Amino acid sequence: MEILLQQILNGLVQGSVYALVALGYTMVYGILGLINFAHGEVLMVGAMVALSVMLKLIAVGLAAPLVLLFGLLVAVLVCMALGYSIERIAYRPLRNAPRLAPLITAIGVSIVLQNLAMIFWGREYRAFPALLPSGSHTIAGAVINDTQLIIIFVSLLVMAGLMALVHRTRLGRAMRAVAENPAAAQLMGVDTNRVISVTFMLGSALAAVAGLMVSANYGIVHYYMGFILGLKAFTAAVLGGIGNLRGAMLGGVLLGLIESLGAGYIGGLTGGFLGSNYQDVFAFFVLIAVLVFRPSGLLGERVAERA
C-alpha cells in the first residue's frame, strides 16, 4: 500500500509538469491546427536561462527567494520572446501552406534550438542549485518533499489562472473566437495575428515555468532535456483531447500516474526482466492506444472535427 501511495504522489508531481507543457501544445493546436514540436525545446531554453541568471545572482549573494523569482521572471520573458519569434519567423509564412510544411518546419526548429543550446551552454549535464525548501513529509508511509509540494501547488495555481484568462477576459474570448472560426473572428474585428502571437507567448511562458519545475525537482539541466518531455506532454495532450484545455490538464495528470505506477510495478510484473528505467515506454503505449481506440481523446476535440 505504501508503494502504491508513493507512486501516486510521484505521478501527481510528474503529471503536473506534463499538464503545464501539454497546455502549450493544445492552445496552439486549438487555434492553428498546428503541432508545435519545438515546444519542448522552449522549455529547455527556459531552464537554461533560469540557471544562468540564478548562478549570476547567487555569486553576488542575493537571497534564495529573490534568486528564484528573478530567474523565473527572466526565463518567462525570454521564452515569451522566443515563442513570438518562432511563430513570426517559422510558422506565420506557412499558415496557408499544406499541413505537412509547418509540421516539418516545427521539427526543424526543434533541432535548431537543441543545437544552439548545445553550442551556447555545452553538452554536459549542469547541476541546478537547490534553492527550494528541502524538508520532507510522510503520508501513510509515502514521502513527499517540499519541492514536490510546491510544484503541485504552483501548477494548480498557473492552470487556474490560465482557465480564468481564457474564459473571463476579453483576450480569452478572442482566443476562443479564433479557435472556433478565424475568418469570422477577423470579420468581427479580432486581430487574429495578434491573438495567435499571444497564444504562442502564453504557451512559452507555461513552458518556462515547467522547465524550472523539472530542473528543481531533478537537480539537473541539459540541452536535450526538452525533447522526450515534449513528446510526453504531446502524448498527454492527445490523451486528454488536443485542443481542449481541460483535456490537456486531465491527460497530463493521467499520463504522470500511468508512468509512475508502471515504473513502480513493471519490475515485479516481469520478474525483474524490465526495470523502472523503461518508464518512458508507457507514454508511447498510451499514445498508440489513444490513436487506435479514441483518436479524439478522452474529452473530445471540436476543432479537429471542424477541420
UniProtKB/TrEMBL annotation:
CDD domains: TM_PBP1_LivH_like. It holds the Pfam family BPD_transp_2. GO terms for molecular function: L-isoleucine transmembrane transporter activity; L-leucine transmembrane transporter activity; L-phenylalanine transmembrane transporter activity; L-valine transmembrane transporter activity. It is a multi-pass membrane protein. One of its GO terms (cellular component) is plasma membrane. Coiled coil: none annotated. Keywords: Amino-acid transport, Cell inner membrane, Cell membrane, Membrane, Transmembrane, Transmembrane helix, Transport. GO terms for biological process: D-alanine transmembrane transport; L-alanine transport; L-isoleucine import across plasma membrane. PANTHER family: BRANCHED-CHAIN AMINO ACID TRANSPORT SYSTEM PERMEASE PROTEIN LIVH (PTHR11795), HIGH-AFFINITY BRANCHED-CHAIN AMINO ACID TRANSPORT SYSTEM PERMEASE PROTEIN LIVH (PTHR11795:SF371). Belongs to the binding-protein-dependent transport system permease family. LivHM subfamily. This is High-affinity branched-chain amino acid transport system permease protein LivH. It comes from Ferriphaselus amnicola.
